[in-house]
Structure formats: structure tokens, C-alpha cells
Amino acid sequence: MAPMARAGGKAILLGEHAVVYGIPALVVGLNRGVEAVARRPRNGMRSLRIGDMSPVSPDDDSILGKAFGALLEACSLDAPVVLEATSALPIGAGVGSSAALGVACARALAETFALPTSPELEQQRALAWERIFHGNPSGIDTAAAALGGCLFYTRGAPPEPLRLRRGFSVVLAFSGQSSDTKKMVDGIAKLREQKRALFEKQLDSIRSLVMNARLALEAGDLVGLGKLMDLNQMILSAWMLSTQEIEELCAIARDAGALGAKLTGAGGGGCVVALCDGSPKVILEAWERAGYQGFASPVGASLPDPFP
Ligand code: MEV
Questions:
Q1: Region label for 112, one of left (φ > 0), alpha (ψ between -120 and 50) or beta (otherwise)
Q2: Using CB atoms within 10 A of its CB, is residue 103 exposed (0-12), middle (13-18) or buried (19+)?
């Protein structure tokens, strides 16, 4: 039996979109993700199947076929292979399903074909896959899928795992509309061209929100972190990335006791992430009453809490 490879999804706490322009961002790995397995077939077949979708080959014109081809090339693999993956992450929801697929598939290939591997190689290989879907990915999603935990991420620099003073939960709900990362990233690039000076000021504001949020995470100040997330949401709304459903989800979460709430990922749909100190049940139930489905994911402390 070929071994099962896994990779998790992600939730960006602060800094999406700005991270494409070199501003740092904070991201956490989720406890749900993707599983993949690679087999060496007896025939010369090369195929990838995700869930119950039709299989694709690297010579296909489909976007998935091209991503599969890019991944095999990044792995320098020209042997026959049958790759199968299943995902527990909603697609187009801003929770990193395509990066998790890329990392899980890269891991499965490395296991089955005894390829040299490391977290850096996994990220490079998954980034070749991600480029097909997203054009200009910052690499934050692949870093979170490969490393998990809580990361301070700056494009082009090694991701920094943060030492958290206190654990917390992120609670996520799907707005009901899927989000197209490439379209949203292209939209922000146009906005940047049109309003360069204002855009640079907004990037500076996001940088300072992220730096303060890092300090808050390291000090265990979850109330402060939540407020910084709310402020980031205001800039993302000004960039027209929010929707009525996202605003409603954020308001419900805050009323139900969330310390902060914002869209996460590309926006224009997708998921909201809320910060929760304690049980996420009240927030999940409040969303459910309004017709939204959510889930929670714990983020563990890596330092002892001085005020338990
Ligand atoms: C997508 O999860 C996050 C974006 O910042 C794009 C990227 O960083 O590649 C919107």
C-alpha cells in the first residue's frame, strides 16, 4: 500500500492581498485538509483524480491538468503515476484548498518515488502548481500547508513560526459564494495602478496592524489581536473585497463574543475567520441560526501561559 500524504488548509489572520506586495502577513494552519496517495501503475498512465471529479492527465488542456503537469515538472518526475486526492476543505473558500492539494500531492510523489524532500522543496513544488491557478501567488498558502502552526510570512523570506503565548480557536464560516483568487488579486492590482498613493498608505497601515498583531500573539493579548483583525477588515472592505454576507457573518460573530472577525483569503466571497477565546460553540450556533455553516480549528500555544 502506498502511504497516505496529508497537508492542512489555512486561515490568514491579517495581511491578505498586501502580502502579494511584500507586506508581512499572519497565517494559521487548519486541522482539516487534504489527503493524497501516489501509485506506480503497470501501464504507462499518468493521471490525477481529485475526489469524484474525472481524472486528468498532465497533457490535458484543463487548468487541473496543467497544474498536475507543472507539479510533475517541479518534481523532475517523468515516470508513470496515478495520483489520487480527497479534500475536506471547501473549494474557492479562501482556506487554501489548492495549496493544500499541491503540498499533499508533492508529499505523496516524494514518498512513492523516494524523491529528495524538505519543507522548502515541498513549498517550491506546490508553488509551481499554485501558479497555474493563481498567476501571482505570494506563497503564503503553500507555506501554511507545508508548515502548519502560526506563521509570520513575508514574500521571498523564510516563513517564521511564531511562539504563541496563548492558544485560541479560529472559527470559520462559508459566505455561500465562492471566491476566485486570481480575479480578486488582479482586481487589487488594477486598484493599485489607479490609486497608487492611497494604496501605498493602506499598505503601510496593514503593515503596522500585522506587526502589532504579531506582538499581541506573542504576548497572548487575544483582545488586542481581535481588534487588529477588525481594523484589517475595514481596509479590505475599502478595497471592495467584502460582501453583504461577509459583513453579516462578521457582525454575528462579534455579537456572539468573537474577539474579532474578518474575511480571510482573497475575499469577494469565501470564508470569514473569527477569533475565539474559549468555546467556539456560541459563534457556530449563531451562524447556524442565520443559515451559515461553520467549523472551528484550534491553534495551540507554544509557550507556557504566565496567567493561566
Ligand atoms: C490568498 O489566500 C491570499 C492572497 O493574498 C493571495 C496570495 O497571497 O497569493 C489574496
A1: alpha
A2: buried
Q: Is 169-298 a domain of CATH 3.50.50.60?
A: no
Question: Does the pTM exceed 0.85?
Answer: yes
- Closest residue to atom 1 of ligand 1, CA basis: 265
Residue ranges of the chain that CATH labels 3.30.230.10: 5-161
Q: 180-200 pLDDT, tens per residue? A: 999 999 999 999 999 999 999
> How do residues 122-142 score in pLDDT, each as one tens digit?
999 999 999 999 888 999 999
**Cα of 8 from ligand 1 centre, angstroms:** 16
Using a 6 Å cutoff on CB, does residue 265 contact ligand 1?
A: yes
Q: Separation of 56 CA from ligand 1 center, angstroms?
A: 26
Could you tell me the fold of the domain covering 5-161?
Answer: Ribosomal Protein S5; domain 2 (3.30.230)
Give the separation between CA 52 and CA 288, rounded to whole angstroms.
Answer: 28
- For ligand 1, whether the C-beta of 154 sits within 6 Å is no
- CATH 3.30.70.890, the chain: domain bounds: 169-298
